[in-house]
Amino acid sequence: MLTLDIKDLSPLQIQAYLNHAVAPRPICLASTVDAEGNVNLSPFSFFNVFSVNPPVCVFSPSRRVRDNTTKHTLENLKQVPECVINIVNYDMVQQVSLSSVEYPAGVNEFIKAGLTELPSVMVKPPRVAESPVQLECVVRDIISLADTPGAGNLVIAEIKFIHINEAILNENGVIDQEKIDLVARLGADWYCRVTADNLFKVAKPVTTIGIGVDAIPRAIRNSKVLTGNNLGQLGNVEVLPTDEEIEAYTQSDELKELFDATIGDTQTRELQLHLKAKHLLDEGKVKEAWMVLLAD
Could you tell me if 23 and 66 are in contact, meaning their C-beta atoms sit under 8 angstroms apart? Predict the structure, then answer.
């Protein structure tokens, strides 16, 4: 494993390693205004939501590594502590990238990027009409982490209004993760797109207490077939299937055929059972996988 001491790296090297490793990162397309009302629009991938009561987002207009100057967004927020965080999806990603160009102060990136201004309800900066979700925020605090090149300035922004394009809602009025078509930032010029074919669900251990990987029988835990992810799935159940459930499940034609074909060959039987269990786990059928693994 490559081990790096931060003191031996330049800010550019640190930035490259972190941007590639800490990814994907959601993109905050922040609109701000200065004291004279001049509009600025700029994307930031050092961004996330940090609280829901009160609802708070944090993003960081870092000092430029190249020359240690600060960004117009930061200067604007010091003058007018309000912003709109516009969420970025695939349909607007190229325009968002264009808005990151370092235009002179006073230049409106809405116009340069071809994006549409929408008046906000509460704050002075406008919203981006093309954005699927727009968050009107007031700035609670700006925390400078240092005055060195690449140092962050944490903007703590409390959300006051949420605007959502109804086209991305499902029948229950909730944002549909497939419809919103989000993009996220990686390292260098890389981005990623959240589409239906790369979405998956992981059952959250919120309402139950999983038995844990340590409670899985050793022969299963040391399987040459099951992955760490598979063991995590198995350890997330609260209770194991009953003997009656296992017995009933083993009466299926498929398992009977497997048992008949491996009479006297315990190694092959275990391998085939583990392969069958892995297939079930990959389909999210955790209880069925447990019944297969405990069937022998």
Answer: no
**Contact indicator for 83, 174 with CB cutoff of 8 Å:** no
C-alpha atoms less than 13 angstroms from C-alpha of 157 in its C-beta half-sphere: 33
Q: Indicate the Cα dihedral angle 5, 6, 12, 18, nearest 10°.
A: 90
Q: Backbone dihedral region of 259: left (phi > 0), alpha (psi from -120 to 50 degrees) or beta?
A: alpha
Rounded to whole angstroms, the Cα distance separating 185 from 20 reads: 9
Q: Under DSSP, is residue 105 helix (H, G, I), strand (E, B) or coil?
A: coil
C-alpha–C-alpha distance, residues 117 and 127, integer Å? 6
User: Can you tell me the distance from the alpha carbon of 255 to that of 250, in angstroms, rounded to the nearest whole number?
Assistant: 6
Residue found by looking up tokens 């059972």 in the block: 273
Work out the number of other CB atoms within 10 angstroms of the CB of residue 177.
14
3-state DSSP assignment of residue 189: coil
pLDDT in tens, 190-232: 999 999 999 988 877 767 788 999 999 999 999 999 999 999 9
Residue 5, strand partner residues: none
Tell me how far apart the alpha carbons of residues 6 and 150 are, in angstroms, rounded to a whole number: 14
Sign (positive or negative) of CA dihedral 12, 17, 18, 23: positive
pTM as predicted = 0.87
Q: How far is CA 250 from CA 148, 247, 254, 259, 284, in A?
A: 66, 5, 8, 9, 19
User: Are 39 and 125 spatial neighbours (Cβ–Cβ below 8 Å)?
Assistant: yes
Burial-class residue 216 by CB neighbours within 10 Å (0-12, 13-18, 19+).
buried
Between CA 246 and CA 234 the distance in angstroms is 15
pLDDT digit string (tens) for 142-189?
A: 999 999 999 999 999 999 999 999 999 999 999 999 999 999 999 999
